[in-house]
Design goal:
34% of the residues lie in helices and 20% in strands. The protein has 850 residues and is α+β, with helices and mostly antiparallel strands. The strands form 12 sheets. Strands 10, 11, 12, 13, 14, 15 and 18 form a 7-stranded mixed β-sheet that branches. Strands 2-1-26-27 form a 4-stranded parallel β-sheet, with helices on one face. A hairpin with a 6-residue loop joins β13 and β14. The longest helix has 22 residues. The two termini are 64 Å apart. The chain binds one RNA strand of 85 nucleotides through α7, β11, β15, α11 and β34.
RNA sequence: GCGAGCGUGGUGGAAUUGGUAGACACGCCAGACUUAGGAUCUGGUGCUGCACAGCGUGGGGGUUCAAGUCCCUCCGUUCGCACCA
């Protein structure tokens, strides 16, 4: 029979669905297993990144199911977001309609991949049944002080017309549209993620199932620094300046003070200064710059406020400057400058001719003249009673002194800032607040939730479309009944994805975010799979939400995702022309651009993207090769965490392999349907060999799936098939046929998680009972995975000189005797003294001669 | 600058613990079957050399009977963060 996937792939997808074999229920005596892949944004089409992500998840899920776990494997849609709104503007379509249609199309595409999802748990975040619970949580967080509104400088993307979180700014550009991000002063809603900074950081050391690079990125992003807060009195006023420093040991060398231009004191100190105008102009020249331009300018610029403060340990006066390189949103926005031991302060001191006092010596006898800043550790000098102390010890000693004086204390600072969640866009969850002239910001009462997104909206205006929906904006205050104005900000879409994995546990629950019993049964997620691009944003937010919900008493876990697998990108060669930019294959002929006949620039391998014209469409591939081939290729081409280089011939190779499996099994349907039973024990030479292949392959495939080495798991099955092809001509007696029958049945089972359609079809063609998808995963016996004869390598002085074959149970003495007697070994040992003999059981003999 | 990772044939990649480097696949070569083959099957394929042999996991050094794997050092490369006090 010829392998023709089109005959049966869709048939099985339909049958699986009709028989509800992937429905999950918490009422099971089996051990639970939660397998989760990052849910897709309904852009309209699945791409190869999705295929890879979901193929990996599906193998894990199907394998666990066959291993007897109670598996939950849900899917849904991250359905709010800007693309829907942009599409609405361009095509005069409603975002809801656009999103609905995309979901429908992509749902069909996912189903066409044969994924083992429990579709009854499907959620779409744009539905009121979903987002009303988010609004409820928002209010609960507000009650606990974890959601708040403040005026602050925010990242503003003009092209998207909205605010962005810090995590969503990449190289000063919008993560979504790559246009420049500017700073803007706005009243915004924030989530107090900084309250959890310490725990979010500490727990990165307990997440043993996460890859080191993701944990490192999170740690980096949270950015903990420990040091001290030190307070300085300002001369001639009652004001004080508090700084944060990681190096209190250098306090005796602090010779001047720096304020961020945005620091409230900067303005205050200039109040009665004769240079007030000049100073304000200086501040404006810096704050007026974009964040990017400000970072770009490495030149130190400062302005003397005319005021001085007092060093709390030397009692020396320190001039207070406003400096361009001090950031308001880190630490306290003020820095004690220690020019001798900080490169930036050193440059500043040189430029403005400020005193440089060395207080740390690298070694006890190093020279005192300084030509550059020394930022390392060492021993204190010119530091009063601390002279001679190591900088490390001095850090705590000086903080102790400050604590006694009441001018400082130990402190920890994080780089992480609160999560700005306000978005000035339509297509998102409305922030459930009402502004009343009398009562201020009032939460929408629970009985009035959800605050529904109005349907009747015009998208032809600039700015937030919600602002112009009068019947939405105009409302009454829930407290006093006066006319009031409704909040028109919607939430960042990362809010929806911060708890969707909880909603999956009880997706239809209508009394709250989730049914606590269900969540506490299914959570945590045992295996999470997704792209590394979410290493910081989504994964950090979801961890934060989990901890918030835990502290509110709804769940009993600290971390949502036990194990995380970040899959690599799918890449393909690009081609480009000097004048016509990126070219797709049809625009290249004989290495020349078809538009201008000039040679194309040699292809580079890059992530598939429309703009680079190097995408391949999974739909086309499924039509040509079938879903099984596409799945198999994305698993076989590389280990899951590495990049895949797209290769058309690699896909064909996978297709060939599946054809081989199909032919091998269908050529022996008579045997499979016959009365000959499966073999329990090997009988005879060929049968023993077959047993060896079966058990060794099951062992290798099982362990490889469990450690996510799908590429080598597939390779093991390929070897198995190659062996069976050779063995199929040797089926002379019943015992052999019996063993071969076992081999074929095992093969089908091993293939089931990878290529479920062909496995199911073969299972049915062989008249086997039930669905292979629900069958047990094959087991192996260690004793059958070993050859009776083993090959031993013989090394003389570290070089392999011979290989000998011995029975498996051969004793050490016998092996060594046999190797010394080997004709290839004798010339190397003749007339020499044997000084050492090492036998590594079953592997090699190492002989040292002199 | 800080942090994390990677470096193996023509290509993608194998090699849990130090123990026969290059599994499996792509590509290429040869053969078989064919009117034909871009189908299928079989065999070959790290490099040098006629075989014996020698050389080979980014470079150099070290530990060891034995190193892709451990240690030191240098080089290259990818990713994240970065005027973070």
């Amino acid at each position: 029979m010829k392998y023709n996937f089109a005959d049966f792939e869709e048939k099985w997808q339909k049958i699986w669905e009709e028989n509800k074999i992937f429905r999950a229920s918490s009422s099971s005596s089996l051990k639970k297993y939660y397998c989760l892949e990052m849910f897709p944004y309904p852009s309209g089409n699945i791409h190869m990144g999705h295929v890879r992500n979901y193929a990996i998840g599906d193998v894990i899920s199907r394998h666990k199911m066959m291993c007897g776990f109670n598996v939950i494997h849900p899917i849904g849609w991250d359905a709010f977001g800007l693309p829907a709104e942009n599409a609405a503007k361009q095509n005069n379509r409603h975002p809801a309609e656009w999103t609905r249609e995309n979901i429908k199309k992509m749902r069909h595409q996912l189903k066409r991949m044969g994924l083992s999802y429990d579709w009854s748990r499907e959620v779409a975040t744009c539905l009121p049944e979903y987002y009303r619970w988010e609004q409820q949580l928002f209010i609960k967080m507000w009650e606990k002080g974890l959601a708040y509104k403040k005026r602050s400088g925010v990242n503003w993307c003009e092209s998207c017309g909205t605010v962005l979180a810090n995590e969503q700014v990449e190289d000063g550009k919008c993560w979504r549209c790559s246009s420049d991000v500017v700073q803007k002063e706005l009243e915004q809603w924030f989530f107090k993620i900084t309250e959890y900074a310490g725990e979010l950081l500490d727990c990165t050391y307990t997440l043993l199932g996460w890859s080191e690079n993701v944990l490192a990125m999170q740690r980096n992003w949270i950015g903990e620094s420990s040091g001290a807060e030190i307070t300085f009195d300002i001369l001639g006023t009652d004001e004080k300046i508090t700084v944060f420093s990681t190096r209190p040991d250098t306090l005796y060398g602090a010779t001047f003070m720096l304020l961020a231009p945005e620091h409230p004191l900067a303005d205050k100190l200039l109040e009665d200064s004769p240079q007030r105008e000049e100073g304000l102009a200086f501040i404006k020249s810096i704050t007026g710059e974009s964040k990017e331009a400000r970072m770009e300018d490495k030149q130190k610029k400062g302005f003397f406020t005319g005021r001085n403060c007092i060093n709390p340990v030397t009692y020396e006066q320190m001039p207070i400057y406003i400096a361009n390189y001090v950031l308001m949103d880190y630490g306290t926005g003020a820095v004690m400058a220690v020019p001798a031991h900080d490169e930036r302060d050193f440059d500043f001191a040189k430029k403005y001719e400020l005193p440089i006092v060395q207080v740390i010596q690298p070694k006890e006898d190093s020279p005192e003249d300084i030509t550059e800043a020394y930022a390392g550790e060492g021993f204190l000098i010119q530091s009063d009673t601390f002279d001679g102390m190591s900088s490390k010890n001095a850090r705590s000693a000086i903080v102790n002194l400050l604590e006694k004086q009441g001018s400082g204390k130990k402190s920890v600072t994080y780089r992480l800032r609160d999560w700005g969640v306000s978005r000035q866009r339509y297509w998102g969850t409305p922030v459930p607040f009402i502004y009343c002239g009398k009562c201020g910001a009032v939460p929408v009462p629970d009985k009035d939730l959800p605050v529904l997104l109005p349907e009747n909206v015009k998208f032809d205006t600039h700015g937030n479309p919600l602002d112009s929906v009068q019947e939405f904006v105009n409302t009454v205050c829930p407290k006093c009944g006066d006319p009031a104005r409704r909040e028109t900000d919607t939430m960042d879409t990362f809010v929806e994805s911060s708890w969707y994995f909880l909603r999956y546990c009880s997706p239809q629950y209508d009394k709250g975010m989730f049914d606590e019993t269900e969540v506490n049964y299914w959570m945590p997620v045992d295996q999470y799979i997704g792209g590394v691009e979410h290493a910081v944003m989504h994964l950090l937010y979801a961890r934060f939400f989990t901890k918030v919900l835990r502290d509110m008493g709804y769940i009993n876990i600290d971390e949502p995702f036990d194990n995380l697998l970040t899959q690599g990108m799918v890449c393909k060669e690009t081609q480009r022309c000097h004048t016509h930019g990126w070219l797709n294959p049809s625009e290249v002929k004989d290495g020349n651009c078809v538009h201008c006949q000039t040679p194309v620039i040699a292809g580079r391998t890059e992530k598939m993207s429309k703009s680079k014209k190097n995408v391949v469409d999974p739909d086309d591939l499924i039509k040509t090769f079938g879903a099984d081939t596409l799945r198999l290729f994305s698993l076989f081409a590389a280990p899951p965490d590495k990049e895949i280089d797209w290769s058309e011939s690699g896909v064909e190779g996978c297709y060939r392999f599946i054809s081989r499996v199909f032919r091998l099994v269908t050529d022996h349907l008579d045997l499979l349907k016959s009365d000959i039973p499966e073999a329990d024990v090997p009988q005879g030479e060929v049968s023993t060999e077959i047993f060896l292949y079966i058990h060794a392959t099951v062992k290798k495939t099982t362990t490889d799936i469990e450690r996510f080495q799908f590429n080598t798991a597939v390779a093991a099955i390929m070897e198995f098939v190659n062996s069976l092809y050779i063995l199929q001509d040797k089926l002379t007696d019943t015992a052999t046929k019996s063993a071969f029958k076992s081999a074929l049945i095992t093969l089908m089972r091993l293939c089931a998680p990878f290529t479920p359609h062909v496995a199911e079809e073969l299972w049915s063609l062989a008249s086997m009972h039930g669905f292979i998808s629900c069958e047990g995963w094959p087991t192996y016996k260690e004793e059958y995975t070993l050859h009776n004869n083993i090959t031993i390598a013989v090394q003389i002085n570290g070089k392999i000189r011979a290989k000998i074959t011995v029975p498996r149970n051969c004793s050490e003495q016998e092996v060594i005797e046999k190797s010394l007697a080997d004709e290839k070994v004798v010339p190397y040992t003749k007339g020499r003294i044997l000084t050492k003999k090492i036998y590594v059981h079953g592997k090699l003999v190492s002989i040292v001669v002199k």
